[in-house]
Write a structure and sequence with these properties.
Layout lengths: L3 H15 L3 H14 L9 H32 L9 E3 L4 E3 L3 E4 L4 E3 L3 E4 L11 E4 L4 E2 L4 E4 L2 E4 L4 E2 L4 E3 L8 H5 L12 E3 L4 E2 L4 E3 L3 E2 L4 E2 L4 E2 L7 E4 L4 E5 L8
Parallel strand pairs: 1-4, 2-5, 3-6, 4-7, 5-8, 6-9, 7-10, 8-11, 9-12, 10-13, 11-14, 12-15, 13-16, 14-17, 16-18
Antiparallel strand pairs: 18-19
């Protein structure tokens, strides 16, 4: 229920914003002046302060990355993984019983999520993420490992990619309502061969292999295997054209 005080306050704001009365115009002017008030820029002073602040923030970020984020994350990887790792923007979220093997010279956003399926058969090995050498994994990318995800050397994953090795929920609505996990037929391996590039917002379904050097356009959903050396796009993704013609003759 709206109280008289709230109603009166709303009426007053509406009047101040829209009325042509001189008093309302004065109120709007005073409000704009207060909201945009700031000290004048002092030549040489504020620029120098901005430079110091920017350098200090960069130094703090570097120290945090070197002394905290990178060693903490490498401690979660398989032994010997992640040499020469460049981890930026925080600490990736790793959930579930997933093993992670990271090749050397990779670059990884701190806003990456790595999850492992928790409801597999008791005798099955833990979900396994294998990342090759010189791989970029961008901002807000999720790697959901059902059984295995293999990312080859020189692969580029842009922001908000989703490699969906398992869905987390069953297709049957009654089973979902009871909180039952996904079923084995919904789970599959994902393989990205060497040199694959997934542009922003690409989703790759379970059981998919993308061939060497293939590029998948932004926003695509890959539901079936793609051959090597092509440009693919769409929902579901399909081959648009081969990329071999773009390469200079050897």
């Amino acid at each position: 229920m709206t109280t008289p005080l709230v109603s009166s306050s709303h009426t007053l704001r509406t009047w101040a914003r829209h009325s042509g009365h001189p008093a309302a115009k004065l109120v709007r002017t005073l409000r704009r002046t207060v909201l945009t008030a700031h000290l004048p820029v002092i030549p040489g002073v504020h620029r120098g302060l901005w430079t110091l602040w920017h350098a200090g923030r960069g130094l703090l970020t570097t120290l945090t990355r070197v002394l905290w984020w990178t060693p903490m994350f490498r401690a979660r990887l398989e032994a010997g993984s992640g040499r020469h790792l460049y981890l930026y923007g925080g600490l990736p979220l790793v959930l579930g019983p997933v093993r992670v093997k990271l090749g050397p010279e990779c670059r990884l956003s701190g806003q990456v999520t790595i999850t492992g399926r928790t409801h597999g058969p008791a005798e099955a090995p833990s979900p396994y993420l294998i990342v090759g050498r010189n791989v970029d994994i961008g901002w807000q990318t999720t790697l959901a490992v059902g059984r295995k995800i293999v990312i080859g050397d020189d692969v580029r994953l842009a922001g908000r990619n989703f490699l969906a090795g398992y869905p987390g929920h069953p297709l049957d609505p009654d089973d979902r309502a009871r909180g039952l996990p996904d079923t084995e037929d919904q789970v599959g391996d994902i393989v990205l061969e060497r040199g694959v590039w997934l542009a922003t917002g690409v989703t790759v379904s379970a059981g998919v292999r993308i061939g060497r050097g293939t590029v998948v356009a932004a926003g695509s959903v890959v539901t079936h295997d793609l051959p090597p050396g092509v440009l693919a796009a769409g929902v579901p993704a399909r081959v648009i054209r081969p990329l071999a013609a773009d390469r200079p003759a050897s």
